[in-house]
Structure formats: C-alpha cells, structure tokens
Amino acid sequence: MTPQLLIFFVLAALAVLGAVSLILQKHPIHSALSLIVVMVALAGLYLLMGAEFVAAVQIIVYGGAIMVLFVFVIMLLNAGIEEHTSLSKFAGPPGLLLVVALAGFLAATIARSTGTVQAAGQTGAMASTKGISSMLFRDFVYPFELTSFLILVAIMGAVVLAQREKS
Amino acid sequence: MSAFLASNAELIITIVKIALLLFIVLTVNAYLTWFERKVVAHMQSRWGPHRVGPHGLLQPLADGVKFLFKEDPTPAGVDKFVYYLAPLLALALALTSISIIPFGPNPIRLFGHDVYLGIAPPDLNIGILALFAITALGVYGVALAGWSSNSKYPLLGGLRSSAQMISYELALTMSVVGVLLIAGSFNLTDIINVQAKHPERGILGWNIFPQILGFICFFIAAVAETNRVPFDLPEAESELVAGFHTEYASFKFAMFFIAEYTSMITVSSLCAIMFFGGWLSPFPASWTFTHYLPSVILIPAGLWLIWDGIRYETIFGKIILPGVGTVLTVAGIALLLSNLQFVNEFIQAPFWLLSKILVFLFVYVWMRGTLPRFRYDQLMAFGWKLLLPLSIANVILTSFVILKWGAQ
C-alpha cells in the first residue's frame, strides 16, 4: 500500500464519518463541526490529486468563510438541541429507503465498471492557478460574469431585506 | 537500521525539523511574553519582571511551571468535547501555520541530503494560500471556546471574534493581492526572490515601496486577525472579564496564550517576507563588507552584557550575564578573524529575516503599550468601510500599473 493510497483511505474515511455524524448529531454546533471535518477532508483529497489551488480555496471558502458563518449564526441564535416535529418523524423510513437505493445504485455502477480504478494522478496544468484563471476569464467568461451579477443581486437583496423600515 | 534510515531519510529529516522548530517556537513564545512585559513596563516607567533570574529572564520558566501545576477545573454545564477541542484546535492551527514559513534560501548539506530551513518544501506552490487557509480555520478555536464554556462573557467574546475575523479576513486577503501580482506566484520563496531582482537596489527593491498601501492594510488586518490590541475585543478584560478564555484555567489557558503568540510570530514573518524582502539584506549586493554585520553585532552586544552583568545586584546575575557576554564576544571575534566564510554567508539570510521579525514583534508590543481599544461599531466600520475599499483600490492600482509599465 503506497503512502498516497493510505492517506486517501484515511481522508475518505474521515469524510464519510463526518458526513454520517453530521446527520446523527443532536446539537447544531456538533453537526456544523462534522461538516467542517468533511470540508477539510475533501480539501485533503484535492491536494492528493495535485489540485493545490482548489484545495486551498476549498478550505478558505468552505471551511473558513461559510462554515464560520454557520457557526456564528448558531451561536448567535443560541440554537439548542434539535426539535422533532411530527413530520420529521415520518421522514425517517422514506429517507432510509432512499439511502439504500442510492447505495445500491453506486455499488452496481462500481461493480459494472471494468478494470481497476485509476489514480487521478497529477491533474497538472488544468488545476493550477493559471489554468483555472485562464479557463474562467477566457473560455467561460460570460457564465462567470453572469454568476457574479447574480451574486451581486443576491447581496443587494440581502441588504434591502435587512434594512430598517423607514418610518 | 541504516537501510531504514537511508530509505526514509526525507521523513526522518522532516520529523527532526518539526521537533526542532517546535522547540524553538515554544521557547521564543515564552521569551516573547518576557519581552512584551519588559517593553510595556518600560513604556509605563516600571521595571517589569526582575525577580526571577537576572533581569527576570527566568520568569517565563516560572510561568510555564505555574501553568502546568495549577488546578484545572472544568466548569459545570460545558460541552465537554468542544470545550477540550477548542484550545487544541487553536494551538495546533497556530503551530501549523509557522511550518509554511521559509527561513532561508540555501539548504544545509547533511548526510548527503539538502536540508532547507523551514518545514514546507521551498517549491510549495500555494504557500501564501495555505497560510490563509490555516488562518481561516483559526477562528474556530476562539469561537468554539466561547460557545462551549456555557457562560455569557465567553459567548460574547466568541461572537465578537467570529464577526471580527470574518470582516478582517477579506481585507487581509485583498491586501496581499498587489504583492502576488508583482511576484506572479503564491510561493513565498518566489515572492522574496522577486524583491532581489535588482541586487544593486538593496532596500529600494523591496515590495514596501510600491505596496505601501497594501502593507498598511495587511498589517492592520493581521493585527485584527490575531486579536491583539487595539483589536482585542474578543478578550476585552474591562468588558468581558477575559473574553473567550474566561472559563479556561491552567494549561488549557496557556494553550490559547501560546497560540496567540505563535500567530504573532507568523504574521511578523509574513510582513517581513512579503513587504520587507524576507531574508534579503537591505544593502546593495556589491557591499560585501556588510556581510560581516551579523558577526560584528555580537561583539558590542557581548561587551554590553559583560558591563551590565558586573554591575548587577545578585551574585547569580554577576556570573551569568558576563558569562553569556564573554561567549558572544568571543564568538563574534572568532567569526570575524577566522576563515569560516561559509558560516558568515550562511547566517546572512536567517539573520536578516529574524531581525525583521523581531522589529515587527516590537511594533506589536509597542501598539499594545500605546493604543486604546476600538469600540465594537468602530471596529466594524473601520474594517468594512475603510480597510476593504482601500485594499481593493490597491489591487486595481497595482494591476493598472503592471498592465501599463510591467512588473518592476
């Protein structure tokens, strides 16, 4: 077993465990912490594939900014242990069914795939900062600009919603 | 055994380097507390610590022992797991961030392997991004400590710290973009090398001159990120008792303390590397006689220690201080007279980098002795309405200049 493979399995196990614990935890903060574990483990997997830039951005944006905001809101609202409404109790069995179906689908796909799974290896120029930026600003410049426009609209919407009503 | 050593040389070297750096950083941390107390004391016309050892030099040791042996109560109603996780997270992330800093350009040749100063490989492409990633996670230590303590003052401290760090992280990241544009790389070694492009310019080639705006934004935002005065709202003692670490005692409290001081060292190194030429000498490359400076400085420092030690009150000080002074003087003279040219050349880079780091650490302490704390709304307005627009303006200005005239 090469060190790379070992690290892959450790990170993959961490990601899966984090995801499971995210659902099973009773307290919102613990769920948020589990989600951070998933994010960081995913960043490690990206790093393993040679996508350093994506890994760093994954941690900065998802692990740092977004999850800090989650934790911040949970702390600010002082959310307690999750409540079970009558509807959420009924959601269990269908959810379990979906999990089994999805797992079966994945297992079937993996079983049908021919040959061994190739290591992603060095993604090289594609994942480098230069590659990503030239793709964003050359090949996909219109979708990119449209997305930023959408984000701008969302920000303005948030500002308008948060504004005090003028008396 | 030797076969094992040979096949795992890189791994072993890295582990030894980690242990060594850990030891150095923790010692420097301990003496940073001494330095801070001493400097602030002199600014306020006091003596500072002077009872334990000559000039209070053994005070950090006494403090360390005290932290280890104090009672470590866990308050009732805390979230046990998170309560224990928080100081661990804070310390681990702070120590990890320092592993990315390169401390010198030239490797030492040991047992047939090139050993670089610094743990991360010098060709780490995402250097500065990796550092920001670690700092981005650093907020959890403080926020979770505040939340898990199940007490109102820590919670307020944790909330303040999350809000503050989110706000200032934007300005922090934007303010270095100018440097990255000039260097065209995230790699810290590349960023330093770009500043040595014209060796004859010396200090004039450093990034601080084209990037003065970026530096001001970066330093202010970095001070806010490390929760130091005047941005120490998360632990404002006059309002929140001790803020996020109110409910922590003994070594768990010390862990937060060490984390804070370690981040100070990291930020100081970053300032030195990105804006002040890192390990580059401020003199033009042709002034080779300045290469003797590190050795020459040892001699007056040693002589001063001898002179000071002879007049010292306690017997212990009378022996130790002149002893250390003699060693320094002799080492300086030996380096000057002997033909150990390679030693002289080799200590150039670490000498300059460490001196610059020390200057920034002094500025940190200086600010603590000088500036009052921000009010909360002032802090937010300052970050969002002044620092962020300024750093964005710096990015636009720098990109424009580079487009028009090219980098350098």
Describe what this molecule looks like in 3D.
The complex is a heterodimer of chains A (167) and B (408). Helices cover 77% and strands 0% of the residues of chain A. By secondary structure, chain A is mainly alpha-helical. Chain A folds into two domains: 1-80, Up-down Bundle (Four Helix Bundle (Hemerythrin (Met), subunit A)), CATH 1.20.120.1200; 128-167. In chain A, α1 (3-24) runs antiparallel to α2 (28-48) and α2 (28-48) packs antiparallel against α3. The longest helix of chain A has 26 residues, at 52-77. The model of chain A has no long low-confidence stretch (mean pLDDT 82). Chain B is mainly α and 408 residues long. Chain B has one domain. Chain B is 68% helix and 1% strand. Chain B has 14 helices and two strands; from the N terminus they run ααααββαααααααααα. In chain B, α4 (80-98) packs parallel to α10 (250-275). The relative contact order of chain B is 0.13. At the A-B interface, α2 and α3 of A face α4, α5 and α6 of B.
Number of domains of chain B: 1
Residues in helices of chain A, as a percent range:
over 70%
Q: Identify the biggest protein-protein contact and residues per side.
A: A-B, 26 and 30 residues
Largest sheet, strands/sense/barrel of chain B: 2 strands, antiparallel
Order of helices and strands of chain B: HHHHEEHHHHHHHHHH
Could you give the distance between the termini of chain B? 52 Å
Radius of gyration of chain B: 23 Å
What are the low-pLDDT stretches of chain A, counting only 5+ consecutive residues below 50?
A: none
Please mark out the parts of chain B with pLDDT under 50 across 5 or more consecutive residues, or reply none: none
How much of the polypeptide of chain A forms β-strand, as a percent range?
under 5%
**Could you spell the SSE succession of chain A in H and E letters?**
HHHHHHH
| Morphology of chain B | globular
How many beta-strand runs of chain B?
Answer: 2
Question: What gyration radius of chain A follows from the Cα positions, in whole Å?
Answer: 21 Å
CATH superfamily of the largest domain in chain A: NADH-ubiquinone/plastoquinone oxidoreductase chain 6, subunit NuoJ
Quaternary structure state of the chains depicted: heterodimer
Number of separate domains of chain A: 2
